[in-house]
Structures
1.
Amino acid sequence: MKILIIGAGAVGFSIAKQLSTEGHDISVVDGNPKLTRKIAEKLDVSIIAGNATSPSVLESAGVQEADMVLAVTTSDEVNIVACILASKYSNNGKKIKIARIRNSEFTGSKSIFKNNGFCVDHMINPELIIVETILKILETPGATFAVDFPIGDVVLRGFHVPEDAPLVGLNFSELEDIEYTDSFLIVYIQRNDEMITPSHSTTIMPDDNIFVLISKTGLPYFLPMVNRRADEVEKIIIYKASRTGMLLAERLENSPIAVTIIEPEKDRAVMAAASLRNAVVLHGDATEIDVLKDAAVEITDIFIALSENEQTNLLTSLLAKKNGTKKTIVLTNEPELVHIINQVDVDVVVNPRLVTANEILQHVRRGQILSIAKLGDSEAEAIELIAEEGSEVVKKPLQKIRFPKNTILGAIVRNNTMLLPKGIEAINPGESVVVFTLPDDIERVQALFSKKK
């Protein structure tokens, strides 16, 4: 597939890197010489330096022949204009245009562009995705990672395993004797920097991070096994009243969760207080202990740092943790910092650029793939896809299907219900399946589930 990427920043680089390794013909346009030089040095893709709102620049990048245009600069306006221009170049009417848009006036349910799409087929709002992710974590006591799959009642959750968790010391053969094990599957264990695919002899250790595929109905039974003390979230603090912070606070307006916002800029604090009915808004700096105490940090379940400055986010979350907050969520805009921040006393790290790249890749890998999600800061990916009639995986004993070495068959959704592989003999056509694999094996996995040509 020929793909034109507008923007060579963190999102564009991540997408170009992934898609070029998968064999796509990639062209990248950006007006920043520093960014284009970086991509030229590290990736085998075509680079065009110039303004993406210029038709001549887009033509030089091959917009006429492009099957897909991904506009992912930091400017909503540039992304929209680039998609409008791209729509004027015919490719048998099949050119797909995807734009990264941060302004919720364009992407929200009341958007005036909802029906005509502004010549954009898909608008990806990273802030909305971040808010949805945080809400799922708030809804699951003790969770540090959360993904819901489109079909059935299947969810993927990540947990940090404390020392006193009932799971600690058990190996996977012993886990099979526990009640409700037919409703969950621990697919990976992240131990320090190592991602472990568990075997029967693998033992769960304190401080492991586990990724669990589980049915929504089975979740309440699993939670006490991983954390005795994980209670429902009753109070959170949000720092700051950024666009993401306000979106999150608005979504929680009618929930039982008490929300306090700390905002250092007075005008923004006043504006936040005027637009929110139930949240408490404090004007102050969360790096000051007195301000944290005014916000009742000692009885707070989760402190969520959502400013544009990752250093401030990290500092405020560490102070909140030291002064009584049970759990912290930190936003960072730099993908390279995700792994580093995960090494300190932070429970959850969210990165808008990574989630944007993942969301866009999901649209690129269209067809029978329903959704794709990276597991934390690891290389492993969870994929939900449809088993097509005539594909290699259907109506065949599971043990005879030759999956790639590092691929795990997680679950099958049959009649809207999650089934673990050990409980079934074969996959039927049209059923959705959750598979865990590495980026290099995605093409092979997709081929297994695709109708043979």
2.
Amino acid sequence: MNLIYDEMELTDLEDVPEPDLLKAITAAYRTRTYLSGAATTVVAEANGQVVGVAFGYPGEREDAVDDVFAQITAKSAAFDVPFEAQSETAKGEWYLDSLAVSPDHQGKGIGHQLLRALPYYARRDNQAVIGLNVDLENPAAMRLYERMGYEVSGKQMIGDHHYYHMQLEIGQRAKVAN
């Protein structure tokens, strides 16, 4: 997940030492909010090791999710100010905030498997659309999302990068039993 933060080149995080950023990210992913509260974390494993992760939530829960990281960074001396995330979601969608696969396991279908699992969680959360942002400078990820049926619905600036906002219609909203 640290790779994602590095690639986004967020100016608010550039002076934070990498070990401190990793500590904050790890602390966030250990919270109930990130694991199965307001958000959902889906992992792919190989030989007992996590090799991929997808992290998302219904767009209306974005503030609750972002507040977790802001609270963690507020308690850390490594952050001059609490990290304030920009809004990334579109109204009425289940938002795939992050998708990451270990460099040693890329190209083995793990990202594809994680993406195939997401409609279950979106429907469980009563959402009919999955949205995500992909960096214009990441054509490999763009091709993966397009192969999975995602379509560009707009452009967005996050930090200093331009992103395509992509969406996938997954059908009628229907509650899924837990």
3.
Amino acid sequence: MSAGRRGRGGRPGDAAPAAGRGVRDRGAVTAEFAVGMVAVAAVLVAVLAVGAATVVRLTCLDAARTAARVAALGESDGEVVDAARRVLGARGGDVRVQREGRWVTVAVSAPFITWGTGLRAAASATAWTEP
């Protein structure tokens, strides 16, 4: 092979370096990949946190609706709180029962991230009590 067809390394088939690119560009792809992976990881954590919040919010909503139905049947506040806690399961949470005349409102909140951030999901349901 002729010397003009050989690249920088002197091996046949090696291409000559592109104009304007030198030794200082080495490792740029690795650095860009590292920055990109951090961004991808941050987005993944955000998506998982939103998913966890949604699941806990729906569980709180189910607990509040169930407890409001139990309260509408004329059960005591203790029974209402027990019904909500049963739906919440092991995650626990706060249950508040408020009665105004024939209306009863049950508010439920529970933590959705266990990393000590104090973030909570909440829901409430209102029902008319049976005579």
4.
Amino acid sequence: MAPIVRIAQPEDLTMITELMYEYIVGFYRNPAPPVEKVHQLIQTLLDRQLGIQFVAEDDGRPVGFATLFFTFSTMKADKIAVMNDLFVQEPYRDTEWESELFMACKNYCLEQGFANMTWITSIHNTRAQSFFHRMDAIQGKEWVHFSIR
């Protein structure tokens, strides 16, 4: 069956929550955030003002999600989207489900007039890096990423 990728809807709250915990805890081995916080984030994305989520399905079963957050770039003097998450379950990696999920994000950004879509991935996630290269992404070399708590 062909992949279905669509914008998340309110009735997807439970299944997106499950996928997000699989991504946060299972894949990245981070501590589980409180479910209330996860639900609050999903609800924020459902209103599509600060971001948006997409869901990938196989025969009606959720197999992945992607999250875009909306912000601005001073350098471009324009709005940009940050693809904060692109996750598909193990059997769907390097398949058309993953590609379609990525393309849904890319096409949304083009249709909505974003100057660009940007993202980061773990330096250890070489599989994802290979995927992004196949999708014609340009790996940045001009900026160093920092964060603070």
